[in-house]
């Protein structure tokens, strides 16, 4: 049986990254406030693990986005399918990513997608044209590389 998995991305600001990637991929930003409220009431977490986001409690060091059509746990709003989890780490990014996302907007949509992602905070690094195809190499707001095919 295949394993369930999620892609975890280290970052400085998980909520900023979740907002960017949620908008970039048209994914749902998970709202864990109901789960957090239950855990606080039970004494299972303390307020120092939390922050406030849009007037709701949120994890200080974690944020996630999920595919809007995939199943999720309604009690926690945690995705059970295609999901990106952003976790805060103290160190900054160094060097080139060993793993990156490729975004596939569809035929003839690359330029418009690049423009939209730039408006969300992405930066174009370079355009690539090779016999095997063309793509745009970009970085997200924290400098993580990704390709728009």
Descriptive tags:
four-stranded mixed beta sheet, alpha+beta, 3 helices, about 150 residues, elongated
Order of helices and strands: EHEHEEEEEEEHEEE
Structural class: alpha+beta
Strand content: 25-35%
Mean pLDDT: 95
Amount of helix: 10-25%
Question: Which blocks of ≥5 consecutive residues have pLDDT under 50?
Answer: none
In order across it, which strands form the biggest sheet? Answer: 1-8-5-2
Main sheet characteristics = 4 strands, mixed
Radius of gyration, rounded?
A: 17 Å
Q: Helical stretch count?
A: 3
Shape: elongated
Number of strands: 12
Task: Give the termini distance in whole angstroms.
Answer: 31 Å
Summarize the structure.
21% of the residues lie in helices and 35% in strands. The protein is an alpha+beta fold and 149 residues long.
Summarize the helices and strands and which ones pair or pack.
Layout: E1 7-11, H1 14-25, E2 28-29, H2 33-41, E3 50-53, E4 56-59, E5 62-66, E6 72-73, E7 78-79, E8 83-88, E9 101-103, H3 110-120, E10 123-130, E11 133-139, E12 145-148
Structure description:
The protein is α+β, with helices and mostly antiparallel strands. Helix content is 21%, strand content 35%. It has helices at 14-25, 33-41, 110-120, and strands at 7-11, 28-29, 50-53, 56-59, 62-66, 72-73, 78-79, 83-88, 101-103, 123-130, 133-139, 145-148. The strands form four sheets. It has a four-stranded mixed beta sheet, covered by helices on one side. The protein has a four-stranded mixed beta sheet with strand order 9-12-11-10, with helices on one face. Strand 11 (133-139) and strand 12 form a beta hairpin. The radius of gyration is 17 Å and the shape is elongated. The two termini are 31 Å apart.
